[in-house]
Design brief:
The protein is α+β, with helices and mostly antiparallel strands. It has one domain: Alpha-Beta Plaits. 24% of the residues lie in helices and 40% in strands. It is built from two helices and five strands. It has a five-stranded mixed sheet, covered by helices on one side. It is globular. The chain starts with a strand and ends with a strand. 23% of the residues are buried.
Amino acid sequence: MVARQVFYEGRVQGVGFRYSVKSITTGYDVVGSVKNLIDGRVELEIQGEETEVGEFLEAILDSHLRRHIHRFVVHEVPVKSGIKGFEIRH
């Protein structure tokens, strides 16, 4: 089990980014959340088996969202227990 925190920069707010990310999760065995930040970035917290997390993050970059992403930074973070499902946070 691994956990990643990803910050996406670019035109990532106001374009349905969070809802598209949630939609992509349906093909992967991952849990976590996505939220808009005050500074205009989007923060994704995701965890699951390493292969699933890696493929999920690649799927985001392979999707229509890629044109909105100018930069992204991935951090390895500790796995949190008790997280179920995937949610859009506000």
